[in-house]
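Subject: complex prediction, re-run

Hi both,

The earlier run crashed halfway through, so I resubmitted it with identical inputs.
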Amino acid sequence: MDKDSNKATFIFSSFMVVVIAILLSVTAISLAPYQEKNVRVEKMKNILSSVSIPTETSETEAAFNQYISKQIVLNNKGEQITGNVTAFDIDLKKELDKAKTGKTNEQLFPLFICTKDGKSFYIIPIRGKGLWGPIWGFISLESDKNTVYGVSFGHKSETPGLGAEIETEKFQQQFVGKKIFDDSGNFVSVTVIKGGAKPDDTHGVDAVSGATITSKGVSEMIKRTVNNYIPYFKKQGVVASTN
Amino acid sequence: MSKETIAVPAKPKKEKEPLFSPKNKRLLFDPLNDNNPITVQVLGICSALAVTVKMKPSIVMALAVMVVCAFSNVIISFIRNIIPNRIRIIVQLTVVAAMVIIVDQFLKAFVFDVSKQLSVFVGLIITNCIIMGRLEAFAMSNKPWPSFLDGMGNGFGYGLILVIVSMIRELFGSGELMGFRVIPESIYKMGYFNNSLVIMPPMALIIVGILIWIQRSRNKKLIESK
Amino acid sequence: MEHFNIFIKAVFIENMIFAYFLGMCSYLAISKTVKSAVGLGLAVTFVLTISVPVCYLLEKYVLKAGALQWLSDDYKSVDLSFLSFIMFIATIASIVQLVEMIVEKFAPALYTSLGIFLPLIAVNCSILGGALFMQEREYASLGEATVFALGSGVGWFLAIVALAAIREKLRYSNVPAPLRGLGITFILTGLMAIAFMSFMGISI
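This time it finished cleanly. Structure:
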């Protein structure tokens, strides 16, 4: 048969489509569990790293179950929601996007409570915009719901060496011990200050030099996202303490 | 830029030749220097440079391109006699795209952190001109084994440049190699700074330009006439 | 305003060539004269602006996890995103074919100027790159995706025409022999990219 005839072309292409479709579906379906696990483990790893529990990939899941004692879901009034949603499965991006369309009363906010060495810590997932794309992370507060215990940040496409520095230990370490409430109990968040924060500033950390937009994005992200949890913390009774 | 294409007879000889005959060796090693896909043939730069900030993603990228290039070459070479001429290009594209999807799925499953860094650039292997170029120029008219070698060779030559560029950029840009600190802390204390310009996209282009310069001043036959 | 911002970002800040090196192969090969550079630049802009929105619709209504829900609730959990590469490239290739036929029929003048470049574009990384960036950045609406595509195209056009103009002048200068042609073009592009870096961080 002539390979360039219409019939041959048609047979060839239908055959090829079938073969490739089967091949790809088989690969995708058989690898899907691994991929999903990677995504879950990565999230767990980030949550744990915000409370300074570094883990190896193989142990992450066990450590997560050991330390994270409670996961709760809040609405925008700070009330705890019971239902069939688990905090871990909430897609923060979708929840934050609801605010754009004015559906704030449908928003759900996940909160993780970690118990480590007999103390409990509140872990809040955060998300915002950097220079090139989204940035995200987790911020953990001590049981006074005021002092920052640790943070972990991630980013999609910030400039390596500049904006991407927010991922480094050096930058994240600065947040430890900062307060999110001022002395009179108002939420002021922690701000990244260009040119360097004063040594006695309990609400400011040094910006990454040369990465103004990313640094601003980090401040924005913490302020906007943590703000959603303030009603809940206020209800729980914040220790609006001085040092 | 095709003045250096390898002279391969359209119809390979009938008698059985050894697996690594001199001719086959040339297929494998020519792309490393004389016929390098990036610096001589100028193909496939598109997706190459954006991943060269660090060595690890570039090595993974290089391997991915090698795998895709070699295996799509083999597949096309196997079916070269039954591909209808009219839909040749789309058949090639489909085979490459399918290979890339498989590679991407594997990366996502087994080296998740690197696959995140490579983001869209894995997908862009599809339009990497090296692969399409080799399919059209070589695999369509040669047997599977030479095609496989040709694919490996070109993937390797491509990867070589990728790794060299990323080595320079990682060393000067972050003072590390493969994520390990190479430039000792004491030098930083003496006032040495990482050069953040090296990490920026423009420097990748300039480094490739300089590599071409070095290669051509050693290999005079590659110099372009005015 | 959001649209305008995306446009400016795509043209200057996230320029396809200078920030992501997409479409470099044809960028280097066709930038010898301004005339052909303009032709290719127009063709790329044209195809990008058509194919990215089509890929956006494809992504939104077919490929994304749960995208098939509009058919019936049974398909709620179907996730075809692993097929996106092959679907995008197939869409782009067929759009290029289609555009070629339509332009030939209705605008013969345009066809003669774009003609030889159109088939090349199917494998131009910037088109698939545009589609993949659209997917990764999750643009909120069809409008945003279109504006992004148009901006990327205009940015590409700008880059290739500027380079071609420089290369035309370069013929009269004395470049070291081993650097002639390709080498100097790479370095030139690098310098242009440094210039474009000064747009970084602009937000409107």
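Strands of chain A lie at 68-74, 80-81, 109-116, 119-129, 134-141, 148-155, 191-193, 204-206.

- K.
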